[in-house]
Design brief:
- There is one protein chain.
- By secondary structure, the protein is mainly α.
- Helix 10 (about 185-220) runs parallel beside helix 20 (about 435-450), helix 15 runs antiparallel to helix 16 (about 355-375) and helix 19 (about 425-430) packs across helix 20 (about 435-450).
- The chain has 20 helices and no strands.
- Helix content is about 70%, strand content about 0%.
- The radius of gyration is 23 Å and the shape is globular.
Length: about 475
Amino acid sequence: MFFNSIPFLIFFFITYVVYWHVNGSARRYVLIIASLVFYAYWSVPFLLHFSCAVAVNYLALLRIRKQPGTKSAKIWLIAILAANLLNLAFFKYAVAVVELLADVSGSTFLAHALRTPELILPLAISFYTFQMMALAVDAYRNEVQERISFLDYALFIFFFPQLIAGPIMRHSDFFYQIENAVLTDRRLRVGLYLIAFGLIKKSVVADGIAAIIDPVYADPSHFNATANLAAMLGFALQLYLDFSGYTDMARGVARLLGYDIPENFLGPYFASSFSEHWRRWHVTLSTWLRDYLYIPLGGSQGGRLLMYRNLFITMTLGGLWHGHDFTYLLWGMLEGTYLVVERALGWQRRVLRSLSAKLPAILLVFLCTAIARVFFRADSFSQALDVFYAIGTWQAGAEPEGMGGFVRLFALGWLLHTMQYYRHVLAAPLLKYGRIVLPGLAIALLFIFARLEHPGVSFIYFQF
């Protein structure tokens, strides 16, 4: 059930009406039931799997919180982290391991097993696994002061606005809101604005760019250099619009339910360094990797070489988190290399005040990021090389259909990126003239839904 679909519009309307017509703790039950229905719409068997994971993690959390920091708590923490990682690894990497074993051993049995349907990845498994693991670690560190009932824990993990692709919430982002969720005029206005803004990003611009560049990635050697360059630059922008569009809609839906969830994108393509880019891009995952991987590895302590190693390992594992494909590994390694080189040269400490000094740095970071994300998008290493070869040799070839509209969509995408960066300035008239803006936003949402050529197109990060 995608946010950009008619079934979700109906589902949310019913949830919204029921939710605000009950009082007190009953709202908690409405949200939990709605979240279960939301997940069951995709898969009932995996909802049962998900529910078991939540129950097991909650039991481990109780044991850890009983004596945080002790040897007993550490054993429980290691056990639940191992269980979560094994569960994640099984669904993400089991097929790849069987393929490798079949190739190495020549086993006819394994080769036959591979002809069966591929293992399906449970929806949102990466995001809810990271969220449960973070809470367990925080409890072991004695950083969780809230009294957490099973219902509150279930709501924290199942909360449908951010369930599928984040943001990855921390306990401090959520639990205090359960008893304090209210719908104010401000939340209503901002919520509708975020939903409309996210829908435009995703369904109008990101999907429009995808329709042009997807054929290029399918066969780079068939298309000319301009088309491949557009595919490289276009996907970097498409990924931002698709993912941040989901986050905007998730935040907007949560606002309409009286909750605030964290911002995940802070104008990442205005970053003038790679370190700054990762402080602005997928913020909740970047901070998760920093707090639960980079710092435990040693962070910047122990000398420059160890810091470089920790940066590289963190980004490489971040690439592997996305999937077992070799291209994800290469993407993570390349992003890690960018950070290591930048630290070695001291570029992250530069203070660029003038536009003439900052603009070249912004363009360089965007270009390097776009190059790395070719590996993120390509289906294989050879396909990624074909894109680079076409650009490097200024290859002749065909142009994809709709190429004439690419520049307009690309420019519109950058405009939306700029609008999000200056969102506080743009929010002022929204809040001041809410009575005029609100009906306009509601009409705009209905118009967008009615005009979509391909409603309900999946979000890129739903596959992770």
